[in-house]
Design a protein that fits this description.
Keywords: DNA-binding, Transcription, Transcription regulation. This protein is mainly alpha-helical. It has ten helices and four strands; from the N terminus they run αααββααααβααβα.
C-alpha cells in the first residue's frame, strides 16, 4: 500500500511545530523516510507541500531545511489572524448550518465545564477545535485553510500562556456562538476581534536553549515515528 503524501506531510508538520526539528536543520529524505516508516516518494511530495506552506525552505547545496522565520514574520501572523478570524465569524453568522451550531455549542458547554474544573490541557485542545469549527462554519474552504495554516504556524513560533480567567474566556466563546446563531454578523465580527486581540497578549516567541536542541536532535536521530494509518484503506 502506498501511504498518501498528505499523511506524511501532517506527521512532519506536527513534528516541526512540536520543535522536534530545529529551525534551519536539514530534512533529508532518507532520514524522514526511515523515521516515519515510508518510502522517499511521499516524503518528497510532503516536503514540497511544506515548502509552499512556509515550514520548509530549499537551500543550495543543503536541500530541504526547516524554515527560520524572523520576529517580524511571526508578528505578521498574529496580525493576519486578527483580520481573518473576525471575517470568518462574520461569514459563519450568515452561512453556518445547524450541525455547526450544535458542535460549537457542545464545545462551549464542555469548555465552560473544564474551565470550572481547571483542566488547562483540555482547554487548549477544545479552544483549537472551537476555532477550527467556527472557521468551517464560514462556508469558505479557502478561508478555513488559511486559518488552519495560521494556527499551525503560530503554534510553531509562539508559546501560549493560558487565559488568566478561563471561565470568562469561555464565556466569550459562548457570546460569539450566540451572535452566530442569531445571524448577527457584525456582532460576531466585533466579539471575535476583541477575543483574538486579548488572546494575542498571551503569546511569547519561542527561544530554545542549546540543551533543548540537543534533546530534540537525539530524539530525531534515534527514533522512528510511523505515520498514523487510522482511516486509510488497504
Amino acid at each position: 500500500m502506498r501511504i498518501p503524501a498528505h499523511s506524511v506531510c501532517t506527521a512532519i508538520r506536527d513534528d516541526i511545530v512540536a520543535g522536534v526539528y530545529e529551525r534551519g536543520s536539514r530534512l533529508t529524505e532518507e532520514l524522514l523516510a526511515r523515521r516515519y516508516g515510508v518510502s522517499r516518494v511521499p516524503v518528497r511530495e510532503a516536503l514540497r507541500t511544506l515548502e509552499a506552506e512556509g515550514f520548509v525552505v530549499t537551500r543550495r547545496h543543503a536541500g530541504a531545511c526547516v524554515a527560520e522565520p524572523t520576529e517580524q514574520e511571526a508578528a505578521d501572523l498574529l496580525e493576519m489572524r486578527r483580520l481573518l478570524e473576525p471575517l470568518g465569524a462574520s461569514r459563519a453568522a450568515q452561512r453556518r448550518t445547524d450541525a455547526h451550531l450544535k458542535v460549537l455549542r457542545g464545545l462551549v458547554r464542555l469548555g465552560q465545564e473544564r474551565a470550572r474544573q481547571g483542566s488547562s490541557d483540555d482547554l487548549r485542545s477544545l479552544g483549537g477545535w472551537f476555532h477550527e469549527t467556527l472557521a468551517q462554519a464560514s462556508g469558505s474552504p479557502a478561508l478555513t485553510s488559511m486559518l488552519t495554516q495560521l494556527r499551525h504556524k503560530i503554534a510553531w513560533m509562539y508559546a501560549v500562556d493560558g487565559p488568566s480567567d478561563p471561565v470568562a474566556y469561555w464565556a466569550e466563546h459562548g457570546a460569539i456562538v450566540d451572535a452566530v446563531a442569531r445571524g448577527d454578523g457584525e456582532r460576531a465580527r466585533t466579539l471575535t476581534a476583541l477575543h483574538t486581540e486579548q488572546a494575542d497578549a498571551g503569546h511569547r516567541l519561542r527561544f530554545g536553549s542549546g540543551a533543548d536542541r540537543a534533546v530534540r536532535t537525539d530524539r530525531v536521530r534515534n527514533s522512528q515515528h510511523p505515520v498514523n494509518m487510522t482511516g486509510l484503506r488497504h
